[in-house]
Design goal:
This protein is mainly alpha-helical and 155 residues long. Helices cover 62% and strands 8% of the residues. The chain has helices at 9-32, 38-47, 54-60, 65-77, 99-110, 113-120, 124-145; strands spanning 52-53, 81-85, 93-97. A three-stranded antiparallel beta sheet has the order 1-3-2.
């Protein structure tokens, strides 16, 4: 039996590009349904993992700190995040998601039908395998470069 052709890195990168584009589009539509920009939704997603300093959020979102200030001002005005002074360094402001912000984040994720439909087509074994592979590929990058999301001007 002939061996299946090997998938090269360029093919994998193209499929990742299509996959991430689909995910990002799905996320953007779901965030908009909650009257949020993609950048605001992404900020909430990051904060859902735990409190983050303003500068660290700017790094994670790959944008200027002044853009993050605008994003956070809008989220704070809606009661989705709050600022707290760091207990260990009074010069640092930590951003914390509120229960309302957590609820909005959960709603956004629940509305991501295209992503849910695709993942739901996988067996439990395939989901476990996909998770392990994505961890293997992207876990080291998460700590070194943060997310690959650029702040949008429409913060």
């Amino acid at each position: 039996m002939p061996e299946a052709p090997r998938v090269d890195t360029a093919q994998l990168m193209e499929l990742l590009s299509v996959s991430l584009g689909t995910y990002y589009g799905d996320f953007t539509v779901a965030a908009a349904s909650e009257n949020l920009t993609a950048s605001q939704g992404k900020a909430l997603t990051v904060l859902r993992r735990g409190p983050v300093a303003m500068r660290a959020l700017a790094t994670t979102l790959a944008c200027d700190a002044s853009n993050v200030t605008g994003i956070i001002n809008r989220l704070e005005k809606r009661g989705l995040v709050r600022r707290e002074t760091s207990a260990s360094d009074r010069r640092v402001t930590n951003l914390v998601i509120t229960p309302e912000g957590e609820q909005v984040t959960d709603t956004i994720r629940a509305k991501m039908r295209v992503t849910h439909d695709g993942l739901n087509r996988l067996s439990d074994q395939d989901r476990d395998r996909l998770y392990a592979l994505l961890e293997q590929v992207f876990a080291p990058a998460r700590t070194s470069i943060g997310a690959t999301h650029n702040c949008l001007r429409s913060s």
